[in-house]
Amino acid sequence: MSRRFDVTQADIRDLVLDECARVVEAGNLLVIPTDTVYGIAADAFNASAVAALLAAKGRGRDMPPPVLVPRSETVFGLVDGVDETVLALTARFWPGPLTIIAAAQPSLDWDLGETHGTVAVRMPDDEHALALLSRTGPLAVSSANLSGRPAATTADEAQDMLGTDVEIYLDGGERTSGQSSTIVDLSGDVPRIVRRGPISAEELREIVPDLADLDG
After folding, report:
1. In what order do the strands lie in the sheet with 168-171?
2. Residue 216 confidence (pLDDT) above 80
3. What is the end-to-end Cα distance of the chain in Å, rounded?
4. What is the pLDDT of residues 170-182, one digit of tens each?
5. Which of 61, 65, 132, 205 has the most CB atoms at less than 10 Å from its CB?
6. What DSSP assignment string belongs to 114-166?
7. Percent of the chain scored above 90 by pLDDT?
8. What's this model's pTM, rounded to 2 decimal places?
9. Vertex 80, ends 75 and 86: CA angle to 5°?
10. CATH number at residue 167
């Protein structure tokens, strides 16, 4: 049976987050609020937990989940060959609604799906998500919805779609943006926007002048 907690209740928040960390360590799933939409989360280094996340959404391994991190410095442990572009983007837009796809560290012992040697990484601008990530380390997190349906902006919407596949639902109130993060792919020869979101192409080109848009 799924459990649900109001993570905004200050008197119980630490206990709730500690329990969430225990659930993650056990290989089970959470739904958490982020700065964009609600996300379904699993231990990024537990292949069976990531597989359960994809199954809960009705997705295949061809759509691997992004990884959320508690601090920008974590990118050095996940991304191979962090360069000035990555550092400039994270300095400007993290924490915030920017996901960066880059080459993954080849030594990482994980299986996020068919990533083709890349990782999509983001630091969310949400105090509850960051407090959880500080306890768990990197989490594989995808929008909390069934594949093909809109991303959940409330814990109720997430629970209606994902049901008992998730052990704990963290309710942090409505996510008012309702918009998933902007995704920039830096893994190829030409940096490219692969999903539009809250951060515009114009803002990104202040850092990456040769950035191609979806239509470019």
Report:
1. 3-6, 168-171, 30-33, 38-43, 139-143, 67-68, 118-122, 98-103, 182-185, 192-195
2. no
3. 47
4. 999 999 988 999 9
5. 132
6. S-TTEEEEE----HHHHHHHHHH-SEEEEESS-TTSPPPSSHHHHHHHHGGG-
7. 96
8. 0.96
9. 50
10. 3.90.870.10
User: 3: which strand partners?
Assistant: 168
Question: pLDDT by residue (tens digit) across 7-29?
Answer: 999 999 999 999 999 999 999 99
Whether 213 is in a domain gets the answer: no
Please return the burial class of 91, using the count of CB atoms within 10 Å of its CB with bins 0-12, 13-18 and 19+: exposed
Q: Are 170 and 128 in contact (CB under 8 A)?
A: yes
Preceding omega of 150 cis (within 30 degrees of 0): no
pLDDT, mean of residues 81-94? 97
User: How many domains does the chain divide into?
Assistant: 1
∠ CA 213-211-199, rounded to 5°: 70
Domain extent for 167: 1-204
CA distances to 22, 30, 88 from 16, in Å: 10, 12, 35
